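To fix ideas at the outset, we first show an illustrative case, written as a sequence plus integers encoding its fold:
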Amino acid sequence: MRNIAAAKSDLFAALAPEWNDPGLFAAIQKEIQRSGRKVVVLDDDPTGTQTVHDLNILTGWSVERLRTEFAGSDSTFYVLTNSRSVPRDQAHAMNVEIATNLARAARETGREFDIISRSDSTLRGHYPAEMDALAETLERETGTRFDGHIIIPFFAEGGRFTVNDIHWVQDGGMLVPAAQTEYARDPAFGYTSSNLREWVEEKTAGRHHAADVVSIPLDVIRRGGPDQVAQILGAVRGGAPVILNCVSYRDLEVFVAGLLRAEANGRRFLFRAAAGFVKVRGGISDQALLTAPQLYHKGRSTHGGLVVVGSYIQKSSAQLTAVQGLGDVVSVELNVTRILDPSSRATEISSAAQAIDDAIARGRTGLVFTSRAHVTGGTKDETLRIAQAVSSALVEVVQQIQVAPRFVVAKGGITSSDTATRGLGVQHARVLGQIAPGVPVWRLEDESRFPGVPYIVFPGNVGAVETLAQVVHTLRS
């Protein structure tokens, strides 16, 4: 049956009241501290830090780096894989390598850990390939047998909710089934099912049938509480997929409390989740949105800022237009056709870099973006290669900039990852918090090209039309 859009107020009004336990999150934090288990988040693009603060991000995964993080005091750390930008086989191999190194670092430091494969809240990414790689490798390296993997795309800050196994995307006051949004038409990661049971069957090509996917309904969360969640999880076997229905952070707290009880009884799971789950599973408290004085604690430069926009979805294009409407913005378009032509690529990049460098030096905001027409290939892998070529052009512009900007904003998942690692040379960063709901800020460390400069990771699918412009205004004010 085809799902239809619904008013958010109507859909939520029909739900049972939330589980009433105001001390639940504090109890979760206490249990996390008691267990000593690290939470390792493998982030398939940098936007997974949307809900957390005061945590480390690694852009590499050597055993030495992982040992250092396992020995640290934080409950959670991130490893940026950017695997959504590469073909499936490469993503699989990457996850095998990371899991192997994690197992070795954990043995050497005597730490146990849980892995969250953090992915897009609108269901795009290499599922099930990455989960298969993690399960197979960790079972071989650690002897752990995973009872199942749990799929949690809930992300309140972005308006992503799961009710009756259907994943919904908020648009104003309406909730639209995920398969009816532009995200489902992604040329590399598209899908046709909004019901997550059916989505699992679709993505696994029938290896897991919809009828065999375990579901944790909201009635269980809101009427049965953590004990009933733990009971359901205790019965999961054989690596089965599990769907979590969830519309609020209290729902997520109930689930995590039940999960921790199941794990205390020996159950083990992997997680394919959006950013909301990381916050609760890591026991990370709320923090107010960051203000400009908090970002520029060492004083503000007189230089202008840098904004890089690669995301091509409709929301990003509308946000780009709003930034162009601000004063003192020098707007430079990279023509994708010229980027993909070897005879014109270098000239297109160097002229853009020069214009942006001049703008920053004069105290103006330099805005570089790709032309809005989305060029695709004949296959999913070819489409990803084109996306990589376009993202590489933006990176080369950033690499050629000589004047240190006051701030850097990168819009889009692949764009923000490539800008950080290749454009700015980031090997390690600290998540400071968020400057807008779902928009994280990193502090660049000493090994990067511009140490101390605030780096804003702006997801392609987050915010209203004016949000990007508001963030730039805050950074300039």
About this structure: The chain has two domains: 6-281, 292-476. The domain at 6-281 is CATH 3.40.50.10840 (Rossmann fold).
